[in-house]
Structure formats: C-alpha cells, structure tokens
C-alpha cells in the first residue's frame, strides 16, 4: 500500500496512532455512536431534576448542622477536583528537567502565563498573589469542564451557588485584607469617601458617597459569584432542555462542547482575571 | 374552567420569566457585540497586540454580561421558586 506508507512518512507516527489517523472518520463515527448509546440508556439527566432541592446532610454524629445542612454532592465533587489537581501537580513537578516532559510543559504553560498576567497588573507584589489566582483558575476550570463526562452523579460544583459564593467571598476578604495591609487603614477607609467635596482646598469626606461605595463593594461579590453560577447553571439547563427537545440525537454533543469546554474556559479565565483585578484595585495606589 | 389563585400566580411568574429574559438579554447582546466589533478593529489596526486585545475584550464582555446573568437568575427564581 503506497498511500499508507507515504502517509506514515508525512505524519512521522507508527503503530496505533497512525492507525487511528488513517481511519479518523471511522473512529469519529464510532465515538459518536458510543456517546449516543451512553446517552440513550438513561445516562442523561432528568428534566424535572434540574432545579430541585439537592440532597443535604443535616446531621453529623448526632449534631445538627447549622444553616440547613451540607450539600453532599457539591462537597464530594469539589474534593474529587481538588484530588485531581493535587495528583496532577505532584506528577507534573516530580522529576523536573530543563527540557520539560509533557506534564511539566502543561504546568509550565499555566504557571508561566499567570505569572506574566500577575506581573502586568500587580508589579512587585505579583508573586504573593500568583498562587491564589492560578489555583482559583485551575479549580474553576476543572469544575466547569467536568460536567461533560456523561456519567450520572458527576455534575459541576460551580453549578451550586454555595461554591461560587464561597470563592467570591474568599476573594473579597483577601483583597480587602491585602488593601489594609499594604496601604494602611487610613488610606483604605479614605477610599470609601471618594470623591470628596473640596471647599477652598479643604477636602471633606462625603458621607453620601460612602453608602454608594459600600453597596458597590457588596455588589462586586454578588456579581462575581453570580456570573459564574449563572453561566454554568444556564448552560446546564439549556443542555437538558434542548436534549429533551431533540430526543438526545447528535445536538447534545455540540452543546456540551460549547457550554462545557468553551464557556467553562472563558468563565474560569474571567473569574480569575476579575479576582486579580479586584486585588490589584485594592493593593495598588 | 376557573383558575385558582395559585395557578394564576404560577402563570404570571412564567410569563414574567419570559419577559425578564427577553428584555434582559438585549443590553448584554448589544454591549458584547459592540465590544467584539471594537476589538476586531483593534486587531486589524495592530495585529501584534491580538492576545492582549482579546483578553481585555473577554473580561470586558464578561463584566457587561452581568445584567444578563442577573435577569437569568431572576427568571430561574420565577420559574422554579414561585
């Protein structure tokens, strides 16, 4: 077979990968078929279960848990994601070489990219906040795209408002405490009264602006966390509704790719970038 | 056929959710399209800064999307909670 050998030379690959590359249409159709079969036999989520009350753990060791219980599914899924991240970083940094391997290359890409971003926005304090921002990005990214795995019970932890609100409040606390630490309490408090009233060169704090700025700070947390939650929840609902409309034929795959991977990636990046922006607004003069 | 009060409230909530989503999506749609158009102009003018422009555009679009997300949340509340 002249064609196959020339193809092998062009791609420079042998064995199984070359076999897949030669029959990519066949394998694509096979993968689609497997996906369709998975979805047809009850793997798909139930339409009525989209927004029902999730299961909650209300008692632990005989004690009642305050605030209405713990959302077990979210907790388990976020611990799984944390475990994946820990294992990934362990294996990526185990035997580091000057010429990186595959895993080390991925890790270097992510860390290096966020190092550049932090250096642009934060300057000399970049290394202090790089771990937080990069970890938020990785956690949210993995949380968003884990929903495309068609196994019942696997759903995005970011679909739960508790996760995103927790992350938002964490960023809020970190940015404000860092603002107090790096600029002093006086400048921090004075910012709430901006823009001040100036009468003959004397600056008088504006109490009206204080309330506006205060509500603006609360609104930051709300919009920060609701943006992620709304995007992921909305995507999940659209996937379920449209999948029901087309009887799970072909279209759910495209929807999963768009809402799972693309929107998930963009929203994770936006979440991390906004966290970085909020921190830099507080930290820099 | 007579309609009870609870049914009427449910119907009004569903109608309200539709109106909320429809009106709330206008603003983000126009805003994000405008931002994408301006980013296109920027990339055409200086292609070497394409990465920075795309990044800034995405963050700006995400911020201007907030109002749409708020209306989505309100619509979800009206459909599933009321």
Key features of this structure:
heterodimer; A: 285 residues; mainly alpha; two-stranded antiparallel ribbon; two-stranded antiparallel sheet; 9 helices; 6 strands; 5% strand; globular; B: 82 residues; F1FO ATP Synthase
Q: What features would you describe in this structure?
A:
The complex is a heterodimer of chains A (285) and B (82). Chain A is mainly α and 285 residues long. Chain A has one domain (70-283). Chain A is built from nine helices and six strands; from the N terminus they run H-H-H-E-E-E-E-H-H-H-H-E-E-H-H. Chain A has helices at 2-11, 15-22, 24-43, 72-92, 102-122, 126-145, 161-192, 207-245, 251-283, and strands at 56-57, 59-60, 63-64, 70-71, 197-199, 202-204. In chain A, the strands form three sheets. A two-stranded antiparallel sheet of chain A has the order 1-4. Chain A is globular, with a radius of gyration of 24 Å. Chain A starts with a helix and ends with a helix. Residues 1-10 of chain A have low confidence and may be disordered. Chain B is mainly α. Chain B has a single domain, classed as Up-down Bundle (F1FO ATP Synthase). In chain B, 85% of the residues lie in helices and 0% in strands. Chain B is built from four helices and no strands. Chain B has helices at residues 5-24, 26-45, 50-64, 66-80. The mean pLDDT of chain B is 89. The chains are: A mainly alpha (285), B mainly alpha (82). The A-B interface holds A 51, 223, 226-227, 229-231, 233-234, 237, 266-267, 269-270, 273-274, 277 and B 55, 58-59, 62-63, 65-66, 69-70, 72-73, 76, 79-80.
- CATH architecture designation of chain B: Up-down Bundle
Strand content of chain B: under 5%
Number of strands of chain B: 0
Distance between the termini of chain A: 70 Å
Count of discrete domains of chain A: 1
């Amino acid at each position: 077979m002249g064609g196959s050998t020339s193809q092998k030379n062009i791609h420079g690959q042998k064995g199984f990968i070359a076999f897949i590359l030669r029959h990519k249409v066949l394998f694509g159709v096979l993968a689609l078929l497997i996906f369709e079969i998975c979805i047809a036999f009850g793997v798909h989520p139930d339409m009525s279960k989209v927004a029902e009350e999730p299961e909650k753990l209300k008692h632990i060791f005989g004690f009642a848990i305050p605030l209405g219980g713990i959302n077990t599914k979210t907790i388990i899924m976020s611990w799984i994601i944390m475990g994946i991240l820990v294992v990934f970083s362990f294996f990526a940094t185990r035997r580091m070489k000057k010429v990186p391997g595959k895993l080390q290359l991925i890790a270097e890409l992510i860390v290096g990219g966020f190092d550049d971003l932090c250096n642009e926005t934060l300057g000399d304090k970049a290394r202090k906040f790089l771990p937080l921002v990069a970890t938020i990005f990785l956690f949210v990214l993995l949380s968003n795209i884990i929903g495309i795995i068609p196994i019942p019970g696997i759903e995005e932890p970011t679909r739960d408002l508790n996760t995103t609100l927790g992350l938002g409040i964490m960023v809020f606390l970190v940015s404000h405490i860092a603002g107090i630490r790096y600029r002093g309490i006086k400048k921090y408090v004075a910012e709430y009264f901006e823009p001040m009233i100036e009468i003959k060169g004397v600056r008088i704090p504006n109490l009206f602006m204080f309330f506006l700025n205060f509500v603006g700070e609360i609104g930051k947390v709300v919009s920060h966390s609701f943006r992620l939650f709304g995007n992921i929840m909305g995507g999940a609902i659209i996937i379920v509704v449209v999948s029901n409309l087309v009887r799970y034929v072909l279209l759910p795959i495209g929807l999963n790719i768009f809402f799972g991977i693309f929107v998930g990636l963009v929203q994770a990046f936006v979440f991390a970038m906004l966290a970085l922006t909020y921190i830099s607004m507080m930290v820099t003069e | 056929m007579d309609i009870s009060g609870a049914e009427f409230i449910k119907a009004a909530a569903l109608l309200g959710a539709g109106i909320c989503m429809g009106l709330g999506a206008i603003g983000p749609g126009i805003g994000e399209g405008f931002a994408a158009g301006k980013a296109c102009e920027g990339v055409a003018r200086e292609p070497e800064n394409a990465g920075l422009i795309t990044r800034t555009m995405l963050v700006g679009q995400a911020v201007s999307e907030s109002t749409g997300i708020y209306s989505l949340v309100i619509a979800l509340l009206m459909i599933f909670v009321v």
